[in-house]
Amino acid sequence: MTVEGVAPPPRRLEKTREVLGWIDSRIEGLERELQTLKTLREFIASSIPGETQSTLDIKSLPWRPFKDEASQELLELLSRSEEERR
């Protein structure tokens, strides 16, 4: 129990700082690993003919159907766009 205005015992402060230090080092390590994985993903994606990073990202999104269907004009535009990329 902590009483307002009274500092916790030194041993508890030491343990708390130790835990915070461990958490900070884990966060730094995970951020470095995440950056490495992102770089690796970009490298691998760039080796796929006809694929760009943006098309891979679009394909990986959690798509869901909408109540209304797309207009014919939109479908034709998307079809032309897909053909131009090939």
Give an overview in words.
The protein has 86 residues and is an all-alpha fold. It has a domain of 51 residues. The chain is 67% helix and 0% strand. The longest helix has 37 residues.
List the helices and strands and how they pair.
Blueprint: H1 10-46, H2 53-59, H3 72-85
Largest sheet, strands/sense/barrel: none
Proportion of residues in extended strands: under 5%
Distance between the termini: 67 Å
User: What series of H and E elements makes up the topology?
Assistant: HHH
| SS content category | mainly alpha
Determine the fraction of residues in helical runs and give it as a percent range: 55-70%
Mean pLDDT: 77
Please report the total strand number as a whole number.
0
- Specify Rg, calculated over alpha carbons: 25 Å
Counted by DSSP, the helix tally is 3
Question: Which shape, going by the Cα principal axes?
Answer: elongated
Stretches with pLDDT under 50, minimum 5 residues: none
Question: Can you tag this structure with a few keywords?
Answer:
86 residues, mainly alpha
Outline of this structure?
With 86 residues, this protein is an all-alpha fold. It has 3 helices and no strands.
